[in-house]
Amino acid sequence: MNVPDDLLYTETHEWARREGDKVRVGITDHAQSELTDVVYVELPKMDRQANAKEAIAVVESVKAASDIYAPVRGTVIEVNKALEADPGLINREPYGQGWIFVLKIDNADDLKQLKDAEAYRKQIS
Amino acid sequence: MTENAPKKTPLYEEHVRLGAKMVPFAGWLMPVQYTSIVEENQTVRNKVGIFDISHMGQLIVEGSGAREWLNVMLTNNIDKLDVGHGQYTFLLNERGGIIDDLIAYRIGEQRFLLVVNAARTDEDFVWLKKWRRPAAGAPENYRQDADTTAIVNRSADFGGVAIQGPGIAELFHALFGKDVDLPPRNAIIDPPFDGTKVSVARTGYTGEDGIEVFFRASDAVKFWNAALEKGKAFGIKPCGLGARDTLRLEMCYPLNGSDLSPERNPIEAGLGVFVDLTKPHFIGRDALLKTKENGPPEKLVQFRMKEKGPPPRPHYAVFQNGERVGEVTSGTLSPSLNWGIGMAYVSAAHAKIGAQIDIEIRGRTFPATIEKKPLYKKS
Q: What is the complex's ipTM, to 2 decimals?
């Protein structure tokens, strides 16, 4: 399973890529392979505030709906509209075109709460 | 449901070897998918797929009184069955509620095979045994002398697979030889297979042409692998419960435990055609006659979302003009239609073909239309 070294991870299988004072967020390759066949994504509302571990998006497979959590506290400043037309991007490019939202981080120190690639690999092994 | 660890079918190791994701279902560890629900659904619609159905129960009812007694236990008319034929039917409680839906096959002059839902097998067996003995307060005609009818639960002895899809005829001949004919719809035959005997019924739960094959549990791996090997030429894929659920829902076949329950009767479920009310006696008849006379308060309907959006799911509320009128019992994104579909119990006044309803999904409502079944038709 692909777990890129340069990303941070949550217990709940989101990845976070730091981009200055922002993080781009999606679900991991492991998560998409467990869900398979993503058929619908409910994106978070723009400009909404989110606490760490707060459910702010929903990814639905044929079988079930799964909540997606904010990895850190922040404000939603970008959402991936492309997923509305092509939710399968999450399956095909979980770390690329399949990103879900971008958060402006409230406090960069919060990123220390996230797992590194090695810890996440251990979690899913 | 038992608290015990889930049981493994005789094909468990094969599923694991094929990389299936295994989940507990009805007391069994079953493959929910091997690669992708969408892919497996489409394989059945366009080629041929094979499902493990070893979890399903097999009850044998036998004896000089078997036919007459089963006609009191079950809703459909078993007198219409010639030897070698089966029928879809219900096992009801006295209130007309559905204990189980099943297929009853007449496999001998005085011998019947009941193929029942995994989760209900034990309950069905206990229920049938209870009625076989004269129960206190039971009407005279429900009683059956224990000497003339025997019931045996053979579920642990048998494994089974469903092979479904347009490629079935060719695969059937590849497995059983050119000289064996496919049984007619709902019929069952016992062709020889590689030194053993199997039962093949022309039945299924997908809406595609197909067969269900039952064999001794010890022959399961041999048959499964033979079907996969011979099926290669026809594009066969192993398919899991996930695909099975989408296939049956596209056809609006009910799922026991979701769309059917002891609180619902076959008339509410729109399945009155499998109930013969002209039979003088069967358990639940009085209640069904009353439902028929007064009209059911709620009806099971099938619907299609009007817009591309989140798929409907069980327990979502159904509204009409802002008034709550029912609840979704089954829902999914149909892989064949690439669209949200579902079934719901809706108050009878609102359960009209073509009616507009709203499905509440996470606090928002999404419009849908009640449609005729099936929701998927082969083009």
A: 0.87
pLDDT over 60 at B136, yes or no: no
Helix (H, G, I), strand (E, B) or coil at B48: coil
In this predicted structure, the answer to whether residue B34 has a pLDDT above a threshold of 60 is yes
Contact B37 A61 (CB under 8 A): yes
Percent of chain B with pLDDT over 70: 95
Structural domain of B314? 297-379
Q: Return the residue in B316, B332, B341 with the most chain A beta carbons within 10 A, the one to mutate for interface testing.
A: B332
**CB neighbours of B323 closer than 8 A, spacing ≥ 6?**
none
Same domain, B238 and B316: no
Q: Is the CB of residue A79 less than 8 Å from the CB of residue A48?
A: no
CB contact under 8 A, A62 and B32: no
Tokens 């079930």 belong to residue: A64
Q: Tell me: the pLDDT tens digits for B87-123? A: 999 999 999 999 999 999 999 999 999 999 999 999 9
Global pTM?
0.93
Size of interface A-B (CB pairs under 8 A): 38
* Whether residue B170 is found in the same domain as residue B42: yes
Residue B141 clears pLDDT 60, i.e. is over it: no
Interface test with B, best of A33, A34, A36, A91 (most B CBs within 10 A): A36
Characterize B304-340 residue by residue with b for buried, 16 or more Cβ atoms within 10 angstroms of its Cβ, and e for exposed. Answer: bbbeebbbbbbebebbbeeeebbbbbbbbbbbbeebb
Mean pLDDT of B211-228: 98
Average pLDDT over residues A94-103: 98
Q: Which residue of A has its CA nearest to B241?
A: A63
Domains and CATH numbers, chain A: 8-120 (2.40.50.100)
Judgement on whether residues B162 and B245 belong to the same structural domain of the protein: yes
> How confident is the model at residue A36, as a pLDDT?
85
| pLDDT at site A63 | 87
CB contact under 8 Å between B311 and A64, yes or no, is no
Q: Does B36 touch chain A (CB under 8 A)?
A: yes
Place of tokens 């979302």: B305
